[in-house]
Structure formats: structure tokens, C-alpha cells
Amino acid sequence: MCGIAGFAGRSDRSVLEAMTAALAHRGPDGEGFFLSPQGEVGLGHRRLSVVDTGGGGQPMFNEDGKVVIVFNGEIYNHLDLRRELVASGHVFRTDHSDTEVLIHGWEQWREGLLSRVDGMFAFALWDSTRGELVLARDRFGEKPLFYAEEGSSLIFGSELAALLPAMASPQVDRLSLKKFFAYGYFPGESSFYRGVRKLRAGHYVVYRPGSGAPIQPRAYYSFALRPDEGLADGPEEPLVEELAHLFSQSVRRRLMSDVPIGILLSGGVDSSAILAAASREIPGAGLQTFTIGFEEKSFDESAHAARVARHFGSDHHQLMLDMDKAQALTPSVLSRMSEPLADPSLIPTYLLSKFSRERVTVALSGDGGDELFAGYDPMAALGPAGLYDALVPGPAHRLVRSLVDALPVSHNNMSLDFKLKRAMKGLKRGGALRLPTWMGPLQRDEIADLFAEPVSDEELYADAIEVWNASPHLSPEERALEFFTRIYLPDDILMKTDQASMMVSLETRAVFLDKDLVEFCCRLPYRLKYRNGTRKYLLKKALSRLVPEDVLARKKKGFGIPAAKWLKEWTRYPLDVECPGIDADGVLRYWRDHRAMAQDHRLFLWSWIAVQETLQGRA
Q: Which residue from 136, 173, 171, 174 is spatially nearest to 156, judged by alpha carbons?
């Protein structure tokens, strides 16, 4: 796990060094630089040594020095690819570096390499013979990659902060900021600053400096469900066995490491599944598990995690935290983000990563399990919401909504009034708009008021509409899973995990995003993922012989903090840095209503603080 940065076009070493230095936290074990003889390309690298710690330094070259790469991530099937490349005549200089496999793989297969790789990655490869710079990102977006055209140069980096030293006067992008308040994160290509784009998950770019050709990202992979309905009508046991095999295989692949490795354990289904599979590969006491607990019982899952750890005999580590201490850390954590993220679970994710990093360098996580197996709360609400839309006319809906809005405000974790009021916002906003409206900080009309200008659904929700319209043959529930996997997973969940863990130089690996496991899940009918109110149906069947029954039956809690309560007691109203076009008086009204418990504005106010702290961190 590392950080990469660079340029193609024209720049100099001092700028490259400044860009790379902005990523020092991602790679504390070393740095390296490459400048082409003509100065048209520069590559920078910060290294966190995980695989081939003695021989995997970067930038790395092929035998004749014509191809050079900087790479962030892990390639889990690199040994298989290496054997295939050696058989084709390629000569390797390292013992078992996965980075070198990418160099020879690109020489052998070019873009065909990307579909062969099972891993998480963002890399930049310069082929001086062809005069091409290649940027690529893994199929689910575990590793971020930002890029922009600055003058006559293309600049890029693992975090948006790495681009800023090469930008003359970065300005907040107004439309992207509106999207941020609509989703709670920056969807698709959008980013915080004007002119900066994220390379989408499953995409790559081939750029020729000086050609004048426009940058055109190309897709090599796009997540798409292809349910085989016949699987739901046949016996379940073969599917259970196949799922158990593929899951164990994924865990085994992700245990590859030359440094200490652990498991982030919540005591829920996904992390318990990882521990169950890992315990078959490594004797119990050889596995280290990590849990953050909170003194406030409604947010604490540490007892469940401890029970699962005892069941499998892992070397378990637990840290109990006072919410006041966690709250005190919030401004500093948010200010270190590459760009704002309105997900309060960033805070416990950071704390868990920091605690784990005291003993290990790599940790396995359960990211992706909810997307593949229908684990999110909204999945249970989609069916009733569709019936409501069909049966309740507009005037009756407005009456129901007014009654729900009149309910007393509670700032408790996922309180009933909060859930009902959020649900009302998404009803009568069906199709592509329902999920982002349910989950986002503000609705379209609220964003228009905040910016004092009209805004359309097509502008705000273009990414969600694109995903929804791509699969008209699927059910609403299956299209919802595609939304979660193609937008919410890379742009919120994986961005949060990457940013929080890399702040403390911890590499995290998402077991559920294994290439073979995902392909299996894409074939499963929805009835094998969500059945009669049971989420993750087939996964729980596969785990029933390994994991205690009460763990599988326990209601999903989530990894949360009392954001609404914190915001009610916040001692200042952050209006320190001007945001383009936003009505400051409108922001203050949200603060006053929330503190007076007239309305629950936790999602917007957390978003606003994230924006302010990010800007403060760049000041």
C-alpha cells in the first residue's frame, strides 16, 4: 500500500517532490522519483512495505529501463501471473514483487492485463518506447486516483491533496459541491475542486504527452448483475458449498503478506465470516483481531466482537473509548481528508485503524458484503415504498408527510422519527432518485435554496440515473444493489476506509471484493440474497456451521457515532471559510433548528463541517 503522484507534459522535480510529500502518511517506509530524460514525465512514490519488503522499491523498471511504474495496492494473484509471464519469456529481477508483474503484464497483454488482475490498485505506467502514460484503477475503486489538466500538463495522485502543489489556484467546484450535499460524497468523476476528476472504478487512461488528444477514460470492467433465476429453484447445498469455497479462497489470497496482518472485527456477520475462514488458514492464537468499543451502550458492539474472538481463539485486542474523546478528535480527522466526506462512521473507522496499526500493518475488512448480499436497511423498505407510491395519491401523501414531520425530534441513534422522516423524503421520488434522496443530506429544493439558484434532478443525480437506466431488465431491488455497488461503495465506503486507514499507514483489504466471489454473486437471484426479511440469506447459510447462531441472527447495528447529539452541543458554528455561492444565513438556520430540536439536520450539518474542516486543512 502506497501513495503515487506525477505529471505528464511539463513540470519539474521540485513540484513532483511537493506532490509526493503530500502523501507521506500513505507510505512512511520510503520514497522514490523518476524524471524522464526530456522532462515530459515525472513519477513519485511513497512506500508502505508489505510484499517483497526488501526488493519492491519504486519507481520500478523493466529490464531495459523503457517501462517504469508507480503502483499503489496489492495484486493477490501475482504469483500465478508471474508464472505465466515467465513462461512467455519475461525476465523478472525481483523475488516476488507484485509491482513487477504489472510492468511485464502490460508489455505482454496491454489493457488485457486489467481484466486478468485480482487485486486493488491504482498505478501510473510510462512506456517511453510508445510515448504513453497509462493510469488505471481497480474494478471496484478500493484505491483512489485523481487527475486534472493543469496548463499543458496532466497531473495525478492518490489523493486530491497531491495535486494541489501543481495547481495555480484551485477553486471549489460549484456543481460538485451541490452533488456532495445531495449524496453526502462526490459521485462518479466529480471532486471537490474544479477541473479535477476521479478516475472511475474499473477504468483506465492512455495519455500521450504533446499529442493534444483529449483525455478519454475507458472502461475495462463495469459491475452488472446477471441473475440466473434457475439457481433459486434448484438445491441450495451446491451453492452454499461453492460460496463457502470462494469466500475461503478470497480470505486465503488476502492473507498474503510479509508483515503482520490482522482482522477488523465488529462481531457482525461479515467480519465474523472473515475470522471464521481465516481461522482455518492460521491457528487461532496466530490471528490478531481488533475492535473499538464505546462506553455509550447504544453504540457499543465490543461484547459481540469479543464473543466471536473467543469462539475462534484469536489474539483479540479491544479499545474502549469515551465519546467525548472521540468527538475531540473529529476536527483534526476531518481536516486531514483529501476531500470532504459526510459519513460520520469515518471517525470510528479512523480510531479502529489507528488502534490496529499499533500491532499490524495490514488488516482484512468486510467492505462489500452489504452490497453483494443485500445487507443495507433500505433494501427492506423498497417493496413497501413501491406499494405506497402505487396506492397513496399525492394529496394523501402530503398529509401523511406533514403528520410525520410534526413528530418530536429525537437525537438518538437511528431513532424512529429520524427513520420515518427520511423515508417520507424518498417516497414519491421513485426509480433512480429514491435511494440518493433517502440517504443524502439535502433534497433538490433544499439545495436550490442553499445556493439561491435553481438546480435540476438531472444535474444532481446524473450518476444515479445512469446506473438505474443501465439495467431496465432488473427488479428495483437489483437495480438498488447496482447503485450501492457502483456508486455508494467506491465513492463513500471505500473512499472512507482508504482515507481513514492510510492516515495511519494501515493497509486494509476487502475480502468480499474478490474477483471470483463477485462473479458468483452476480449470478445469484435476489431471492438468495434477501428472503422473507432475512438479509444475506445464502451467506448466512454458508456460515451456519462455523459462526454462532446468535451472531447470524443479530440485528445489524452499523458502525456509528451520536452525530446528532454532538452537533446539538457543538460549541461553534463553522462559518470560517467561504464556500462559493452558499447562503451563510441559511446554514445558520439549519444550526439553530437542530440545536433547538425543531428539526434533525444531522446529515447536512455533518456535511457542512466536513467541507469547512477540509478547507481549513488546505488554508
A: 136
Q: What is the DSSP string of 182-237?
A: HHSS--TT--SBTTEEEPPTTEEEEE-TTS-PPP--EES--------THHHHS-SH
Q: In what helix (H) or strand (E) does residue 293 lie, and over which residues does it extend?
A: strand 288-294
Give the tens place of pLDDT for each residue, 196-236: 999 999 999 999 998 878 899 999 999 999 999 999 888 99
Which grid cell sits at 446? 433544499
Q: Kindly state whether residues 208 and 242 are assigned to the same domain.
A: no
Tell me how crowded residue 485 is: count the other CB atoms within 10 A of its CB.
25
Percentage of the chain exceeding pLDDT 70:
96
With a cut of 60, say whether residue 164 has pLDDT above it: yes
Task: Please determine, for residue 579, whether its predicted confidence score (pLDDT) is greater than 80.
Answer: no
Report the SS3 class of residue 31: strand
Res 288: pLDDT: 95
Burial of 391 (0-12, 13-18, 19+ CB in 10 A): exposed
Rounded CA-CA distance 262/281 in Å is 13
Q: Which residues are within 8 A (CB) of 155 and not within 5 positions of it... i.e. 6 or more apart?
A: 5, 6, 7, 11, 19, 147, 148, 149, 163, 166, 167
**pLDDT tens-digit readout, 353-366:** 999 999 999 999 99
Same domain membership, residue 50 and residue 26: yes
- Tell me, rounded to whole angstroms, the distance of Cα 537 from its chain centroid: 24
Are the beta carbons of 242 and 520 closer than 8 angstroms?
A: yes
Q: Which domain holds residue 69?
A: 2-219
Beta strands 203-207; 218-219: pairing state: antiparallel
The CATH number for 68's domain is 3.60.20.10
533 located within any domain: yes
Same domain, 87 and 17: yes
- Distance between CA atoms of 412 and 410, rounded to whole angstroms? 6
Q: Is 367 inside any structural domain?
A: yes
DSSP 348-376: HHHHHHHHHHTT-SEEEE-TTHHHHHT-S
Instruction: Name the one residue in this structure whose C-alpha cell is 433548528.
Output: 593
- pLDDT tens-digit profile of 20-38? 999 999 988 888 999 998 8
Number of domains present in the structure of the chain: 2
**Whether residues 63 and 187 fall in one domain:** yes
Q: Which amino acid is at 579?
A: C
- Check: pTM over 0.90? Answer yes or no: yes
- Asked whether the beta carbons of 35 and 41 are under 8 A apart, the reply is yes
